From TrEMBL:
Any single Pfam family the record assigns to this protein: WHD_CvfB
Protein name, entry field: S1 RNA-binding domain-containing protein
Protein family (similarity comment): Belongs to the CvfB family.
Domain S1 motif: 154-214
Source taxon at top rank: Bacteria
SMART domains on file: S1
Length: 292
């Protein structure tokens, strides 16, 4: 008979009842099912399926809450705690958070997951039987994803980062496609587990997606326009910058090139939102009144 192992679901029988719960057995080993881990009263001799894990003292214990993520079964788990020099803890739906060791995380902590990010993983045990999170390998991802149609090109897709590397970022999309973001196509390196939205720039023959996190030209101009409007709002609708301003001054204040700045100003003037006078830029009167 196989031993009862952490991270798995097994069917056990109620051997005896205690004031604090039930002792379950497979005929050879006993584990505790605490009263808080079951939502009904059980009887001696009754069989039920339970998930096995270790309590805070390292003892095997059972719960009737069956998580999707198990040894050999993958799913998304939310990061609930980040501990330097140890790793990150994830919530798989039981009363104990599971550690993903720093040995399985990126070398640089700047791209470690943050609280609220999600990791695609299953469970594993070490030589001492302790339970850990196991990130999905590339081989597992390939088995679980589907081929993307060529019509996906130029579409925007959402997904989460499942692997980091020097050359780029690997993404599992919400629709079940595998994507890759080359380092040249990301303004900054996303975190492992971070939710991202990218544009499909190529659909490869194997059905994987090449993505870009760099906005399209008109999207970038929208961002630049919003940055200018936000700055003007903070100054009561006027700023000492115009299309005649020096490039270094624009770069220092807005973090954009003069060419981008001029395009954004042009968009706002065309929309009748702003006007320029004597080297300054002002909200149009109707825009100013709407902000008061």
């Amino acid at each position: 008979m196989e031993h009862i192992e952490a991270g798995t679901v097994t069917t056990l029988q109620v051997e005896r009842i205690a004031p604090f719960g039930y002792f379950l057995t497979d005929g050879e080993e006993d584990v505790l099912l605490h009263q808080s881990e079951v939502d009904r009263q059980l009887e001696v001799g009754e069989s039920l399926s339970v998930f096995i894990y270790q309590d805070k003292q390292g003892r095997l214990t059972a719960t009737s809450k069956i998580p999707k993520i198990q040894v050999g079964r993958y799913g998304w788990a939310e990061v609930v705690n980040v501990v330097e020099n140890l790793g990150v803890f994830v919530d798989i739906g039981i009363n104990k958070d599971i550690l993903v060791s720093l040995d399985d995380l990126p070398l640089f902590q700047s791209v470690w997951p943050s609280n609220g990010d999600q990791l695609f993983l299953s469970l594993k045990t070490d030589r001492n039987g302790r339970l850990f999170g196991r990130l999905a390998t590339e081989n597992i991802i390939q088995q679980l994803t589907k081929k993307a149609p060529e019509t996906m090109k130029n579409n925007n897709v959402k997904g989460r980062v499942y692997r980091e590397s020097k050359v780029g970022t690997f993404v599992l999309t919400e629709d079940g496609y595998r994507g890759f973001v080359h380092e040249s196509e990301r303004p900054k390196e996303p975190r492992l587990g971070e939710s991202i939205e990218g544009r499909v720039i190529d659909v490869k023959k194997d059905g994987t997606l090449n993505l870009s996190l760099i906005p399209r030209g008109h999207e970038k101009m929208d961002e630049d326009s919003e940055a200018i409007l936000s700055y003007m709002h903070s100054r009561n609708g006027a700023m000492p910058y115009s299309d005649k301003s020096q490039p270094d001054d624009i770069l220092e204040r807005f973090g954009m090139s003069k060419a981008s700045f001029k395009r954004a100003l042009g968009k706002l003037m065309k929309a009748n939102r702003i006007e320029q006078r004597e080297g300054w830029t002002y909200f149009k009167e109707e825009d100013r009144e709407s902000k008061q």
